[in-house]
Design a protein that fits this description.
The protein is an alpha/beta fold. It has helices spanning about 10-20, 20-30, 35-40, 55-60, 70-80, 90-95, 110-120, 130-135, 150-160, and strands at about 5-10, 30-35, 65, 105.
């Protein structure tokens, strides 16, 4: 398989920590994220059931944290026109990703992020956390939205809506 950079959002980072595959996947792939996603990993309702605490400093030491320029965000917003509901982390991640010339993937289970990828014509650059884990030699049962099957179905649904 061709080595690609994988830009991962906060939801996928949290799920990888919850399932304890984070160290394995970051050891096998070029996993990167943006500062806004790191910020999102460090916030949230810490007293709710199922909350996964992320050591933000360890995260910063483990993978590259990419800086997004305001011009990249504005350019993305112009391309997406009136798309509502794109979270800041995913917006920053996509804004950075679409400027890259080398091969890359985006890992996000977010419905609006997938819709944005379809609008941008980069739906084939989406990858599930399950696939990343499998390619790292890990066989874990993920929540539905992190699976290959879910991503394939969601991407197809959105593509048909756009036609």
């Amino acid at each position: 398989m061709e080595i690609r950079r994988i830009f991962i959002d906060s939801n996928a980072i949290i799920e990888a920590h919850r399932t304890r595959c984070w160290n394995v996947i970051t050891g096998h792939h070029r996993i990167e994220t943006v500062g806004k996603c790191v910020e999102e990993c460090g916030t949230g309702e810490q007293d709710r059931d199922g909350y996964v605490k992320i050591d933000v400093e360890a995260l910063r030491e483990r993978i590259p944290i990419l800086e997004v320029q305001i011009g990249e965000i504005i350019a993305l917003e112009l391309r997406l026109e009136n798309l509502a509901g794109l979270d800041p982390g995913e917006k920053h991640l996509l804004a950075f990703a679409v400027t890259q010339q080398d091969a890359w993937w985006v890992c996000s289970p977010d419905n609006v992020c997938i819709r944005a990828a379809v609008i941008l014509g980069i739906q084939d650059n989406l990858i599930s956390l399950e696939r990343i884990a499998e390619e790292s030699g890990v066989n874990i049962s993920f929540r539905d939205q992190y699976t290959k099957k879910w991503l394939r179905k969601k991407r197809s649904e959105i593509l048909f809506e756009e036609i």
